[in-house]
Write a structure and sequence with these properties.
This protein is α/β, with parallel strands linked by helices. The protein has a single domain, classed as Rossmann fold. About 25% of the residues lie in helices and about 30% in strands. It contains seven helices and eleven strands. The strands form two sheets. It has a nine-stranded mixed sheet with strand order 2-1-3-4-5-9-8-7-6. It has a two-stranded antiparallel sheet with strand order 10-11. Strand 3 and strand 4 form a beta hairpin.
Length: about 325
């Protein structure tokens, strides 16, 4: 696949402008970099042309994002992220809507039913993957009675099957972008009812990727533990990776930097083992066994043993001999 890289602007704090009021200052402070970032939001938009399949896919992705997707309805002729300078308008839209992910749909004779998934960092385009939709079934096309829908605030579970997600660099990049897109807010605990859906991604041997959205249905089992079943509710699509663009090395290094404030403090001689858990190491100085004082019982002292042996001999000599 084609690999395209452009000269990025110097990495630093994104230019958010200057606020003249207190409300504006609070809004800019909310968008400023933080040690623990808020949940990521995505912007969904169309290029110059978009087929019905692409528009339905964007609508369904907005449903899956559960309130964390900002849909732009106008067509954007100048948004061409793989061309030099074509990402400028896309970065402007993302910064204005406070989004760090994007999903761009387009359609042309050369690349029909096209989707581009990507990420931003510090206001600049970070990386992206372009896929083509070969087959598509919308959420609204699967007509079922009492069909479950994604709940607001819930978190989907992911299942990636196939060696391609481990060996193919483009599929690995697609997996990371999908996980970022549907990660949502950082939480320390979650209600089990919030885990209401599963996104199944299967990498086929011919390079295709099967994307399915299934609902988690809990049915009665006669015990306290219910039977768990997956029910396909859509959207379901078959994707094929066309192009990918990796992040610039300098930008990737800056993006992977961990702030000092959230780095865990290193504890000496303590390691975390995934099997054994927390393990510690003790250092004991070398011991001189010759100088160790052993505690002895009174009956074990040498003087008492010798006196007892002498008394026993004297008693034996004094006793009469039978003859």
């Amino acid at each position: 696949a084609d690999q395209v890289q452009t000269n990025a602007m110097p990495i630093g704090a994104a230019a958010l402008g200057e606020a003249k009021t207190g409300k504006g200052k609070r809004a800019l402070l909310k968008r400023a970099p933080k040690e623990v970032e808020d949940g990521k939001r995505a912007i969904l938009l169309c290029g110059g042309k978009a087929s019905n399949t692409v528009q339905e896919a964007l609508r369904d992705f907005q449903l899956l994002l559960r309130g964390r997707g900002q849909r732009l309805t106008r067509k954007n002729e100048n948004v061409k992220p793989f061309d030099v300078g074509g990402e400028t308008e896309l970065e402007f839209f993302a910064q204005r809507n406070d989004c760090s992910l994007f999903l761009l749909g387009s359609h042309s004779k050369k690349r029909p039913h096209n989707l581009v998934l990507g990420r931003f960092f510090d206001g600049h385009l970070y990386d992206m993957v372009e896929v083509g939709i070969e087959t598509f079934t919308s959420f609204y096309d699967m007509k079922k009675e009492n069909k479950p829908k994604p709940h607001l605030g819930g978190k989907p579970m992911f299942a990636f099957a196939g060696e391609g997600f481990e060996n193919d660099p483009q599929l690995k990049q697609l997996r990371l972008i999908l996980l970022d897109m549907f990660h949502g807010e950082n939480v320390s605990k979650i209600n089990l009812k919030g885990l209401d859906s599963v996104l199944l991604c299967t990498a086929m041997e011919d390079g295709r990727v099967l994307f399915k959205h299934c609902a988690v249905v809990l049915k009665k089992s006669g015990t306290r533990v219910p039977n768990v079943k997956l029910e396909e509710i859509g959207p379901c699509m078959t994707l094929r990776v066309r192009r990918a663009r990796e992040a610039l090395p300098s930008m990737a290094k800056e993006a992977h930097r961990v702030p000092k404030g959230i780095k865990p403090k290193k504890v000496k001689n303590v390691t975390d083992d995934p099997v054994m858990g927390k393990r510690g190491r003790l250092y004991v100085p070398q011991q001189d066994f010759d100088s160790i004082v052993y505690k002895k019982m009174k009956g074990m002292k040498r003087e008492r043993r010798e006196a007892a042996a002498a008394a026993s001999d004297a008693k034996r000599e004094a006793s009469p001999v039978e003859g």
